[in-house]
Amino acid sequence: MGTPHEHHHSQVTNVAKGTFEVTIGGVTKVMKQGDCFYIPPHIVHGVVCLKDGLLIDVFSLIREDFMWKMMY
Question: What is the chain's percent helix, strand, coil content, to nearest 5?
Answer without folding.
Answer: 5, 60, 40
